[in-house]
Amino acid sequence: MLGPVILAASRSDRMRRLISAAPVTKQVVDRFIPGESVDDIVPIVQELTGRGLELTMDVVGEDITTPEQATAARDAYLALIDRLRELGLGERVEMSVKLSMFGQALEGGHDLALANVRPVVEAAAAIGTTVTLDAEDHTTLDSMFAIHEELRRDFQGTGCVIQAYLFRTEADARRLAEAGSRVRLVKGAYKEPAEVAYQQKHEIDKAYVRVLRTLMEGEGYPMVGSHDPRLISIAQELARRAGRKPDEYEFQMLYGIRGDEHLRLAAEGHRMRVYTAYGTDWYGYFMRRLAEKPANLRFFVRSMLSKG
Fold first, then answer.
1. Residue 289 appears among annotated catalytic residues
2. Are 169 and 163 in contact, with CB atoms under 8 Å apart?
């Protein structure tokens, strides 16, 4: 399986330099990350919202080594929120944040990440939107969930992400499926050991359905993070059985993947949110997109060979 190899490469400085230097890389990266600055991304936001879609925005970057970099990450999100306010799009666009970008891995990182993310959540609430805390590798999750719980005391709509491939997730889903919660379910995109996570696709898919059923039957707001046509159909059926209306859950997919499906779901009356990333520190995000789906990797390799 190539996925684990690619995920290992996502942490390799040597591979980062090699791939970043390839002349074709930028045009392929642009498929998944359509800009480096707020100014770059504004036309994308306007186009997608104009077509009936909603968005969640991610300023890419994870390899934070100083408190100053964490502060800069906070300020990048505040600048994004200020631009959304100017555009009047606060209710159509939320934010996704990785707490590692806010300093979670530094000394005193839990408190530092909470201090940095809170102003972002406050600013988002002021323009009528919210923030979802992305899940990262399993060693960070207890801290993420604690920060999530703390933020929800003042901002109940703060969301979080759970990953179907982790053994712990079924219990996490039961705890989180309460009134007022917002929970995005994804398969998982980090290299995790067999001691904590399912390794085979069929096992992950079965776990995804079990967790999704828990969320749909709960009292919160499920966010279905998948491009898999079979899982999308199952989600619709589980929502129907649970008596959920179309505005009582939503689908989320990545920018650059299955764009026609985004529009189809929106046209059918579903809430469809596009996870749209931008920024200059794109490497880790890009490599996980390659690892998630063989078609993404084939697209990248073909592009490199055609420019060779």
1. no
2. yes
